[in-house]
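Marked as duplicate of an earlier ticket. Keeping the data here for the record.
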Amino acid sequence: MCNHSILIALGANLPSPAGSPAQTLVAALAMLPEEGLPLQAISRFYRSPAFPAGSGPDYVNACAVLDARRLRGKDAGAVLAALHRVEARLGRVRGQRWGARLIDLDLLAMGQAVLPDPATQAAWRELPLAEQMVRAPETLILPHPRLSERAFVLIPLAEIAPQWRHPATGQSVVQMLGALPDAEKAALAPFVAPFGGEQRLSSPD
């Protein structure tokens, strides 16, 4: 995957109309092409603890790369709007920040775009944790300001876009993952479906 990749993250920890959190992620992935977001690659599913600790059931997380060649010129706003439509189709009503949820689809990066500008992106990337938990930006920030801090994003992302580099810091996904504490990485485990075996989806043709 090159630096032009469009990266998204998926997560859920509550049942939705589609079923369990894992079934909800499968449904969301199926809906993305219907909303004009063709897929190029999909990671394995992982189980991760909710944050803050004790705030809800474990999450099921994954990442995906969109096929930029087939997006027909969609900008970041159009991609985000399509992600929100998928969330709405699966029953999500946006409310509590960092709360338990039926489905969460995050736009992580649009290639090497830095939005809305480098200074604003850096300010949100450096925001202290206490402020992160209560403040939400009024505009789209890309790359996602918490991208480099989240094992539940970087571990699946390293499977499908390991050499993508953060346009503001120059670090690759592999380098960002390597900088995380071992305890945070160890808290994730491949999701094992009730019928046995790891949940694994192949990349679409």
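See parent ticket for discussion. The chain has one domain: 6-190.
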